[in-house]
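SEQUENCE-TO-STRUCTURE ENTRY
===========================

Backbone structure tokens: a row of integers, each naming the local backbone shape at its residue.

Task: work out the structure tokens from the sequence, keeping to the layout shown below.
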Amino acid sequence: MSTIALIGGDGAGKTTVAQALLDQSSVPIKYLYMGIHAPSANYSLPTTRMAHAIKVRAHRRNRQSARIDDRSDRPEYREMEKGNLRAFLRLVNRVAEETYRQLVSWFFQMRGYVVLYDRHYFFEHDTELITPSGERQRLTERLHRRFLADVYPKPDATILLDAPAETLYERKQEWNLAHQERQRARYLAQGGKVRNFARIDATQPLDKVVADAQEQLASFLEERT
């Protein structure tokens, strides 16, 4: 069958619209979270859940025992080596997790379902190898971005719930305006690299957004048929 990704900034209404499509669609649909926030995933590897728990615990510990060490601005060799090892293990786990969810998607498709992605890795990560500050990404980050850009399967269709950064910030104040603007620009730029990319105005009333999403879904499936 087909895969359709529903993307948009935090506050655009992705989860609400996805649930409406699941409830109201006349075709069999399976929901699959394809974002980077581990607790939100409905299918996930144990290693990913464990890594997230370790990260949260370390963050809390660092906040409690934060202190400034001004002995040297240059990290010790062992610290650099440890950092490189962690980066490599993080890359391995990322690719394993992304591959696992793609296998889940293929399984559902083979059983005759349309798979509705909540987010998608290709849009969650900027595939450019240069950071916004002009610095080159570290090797593991470059390898990961090339994997997503050149190897990882893209959705058959993508629906962007688009809204200005100010609107998204008013709805859900999790990220600042600068982050929301960068994210929106990334979605639009990445959208030009995939097929069947549609944009829906997410500032409309919710029922109109849902109706537009249903129309896009039906139109795409009709073309596929």
Observations:
- Residues 3 and 155 are 5 Å apart (CA to CA).
